[in-house]
Amino acid sequence: xxxxxxxxxxxxxxxxxxxxxxxxxxxxxxxxxxxxxxxxxxxxxxxxxxxxxxxxxxxxxxxxxxxxxxxxxxxxxxxxxxxxxxxxxxxxxxxxxxxxxxxxxxxxxxxxxxxxxxxxxxxxxxxxxxxxxxxxxxxxxxxxxxxxxxxxxxxxxxxxxxxxxxxxxxxxxxxxxxxxxxxxxxxxxxxxxxxxxxxxxxxxxxxxxxxxxxxxxxxxxxxxxxxxxxxxxxxxxxxxxxxxxxxxxxxxxxxxxxxxxxxxxxxxxxxxxxxxxxxxxxxxxxxxxxxxxxxxxxxxxxxxxxxxxxxxxxxxxxxxxxxxxxxxxxxxxxxxxxxxxxxxxxxxxxxxxxxxxxxxxxxxxxxxxxxxxxxxxx
Length: 378
Hints:
78% helix, mainly alpha
């Protein structure tokens, strides 16, 4: 096995291992909501804890990539994630759930920037196209994590997260430290700080485009199981399958994304994907038979699959000096969308219905179709 091939496989392994505990958490959200007797609006407030932790931490993470390197950051963050993710399951009310999710958001920021900076540099330094497939393995990790929860219905939630998190963390530490040291990865000087007005205008458009995609991805991750639970007969226990379908097709779209990027071009691929997301949302919003909602979850998963990988590659390609901070900017805005989407949907669902809340995502996706032209490499 060549050194480059080994590095690519290890990178994809790290992308797959990191979200396993996160997938478990997503499948357990309905359980936590019920255990704490939260309504949709209260759950929406609690879910804001993650963006509160993520947003400031992403900028720190961007700086750490140059000073420490993504390999070391990932090796430390993997076990910390497992410990911190157990805390929401020990929450006793809205306030404690919010605080624990803030802590989890801080760890997520380190993991996300570490993954994307390493994959972005790997693409540039080796002339590869791997970003979409890497994120496909990330989505696959979410799907497997949620499925494992569904396969352990009699196991207490806290133990289930530990059973999933500890082995994934151990393997993640090994995979992260086994990654090849790429040029400029560790122990280098931090890039010069830039003022807001010094940021490339194109970077702002890239970030906004990924924002609308990530709002839909975040909304489906947190609310798909609850949407299905409301439509299933009382007493049904398989609402978490909605997350699995969504994440599975999210992974499929990302596995095909690199090939689609070569065959169709960045702009066409992004616009076709977003049209799939719009169609899938309409299947959930319009009153239709229950079986159509499963198709809707699948289409939305395909539709939002390539937006963030294309955005990360576009940001990394803007220049060589500030690739880490550029990726951190896109990750910040994307994570903001991923995490503000769910509470926005929850607030609207509490006032109106969950269908109305999901409908609020449509304008952003339509704007994203127009803005996809900025994802084309400069």
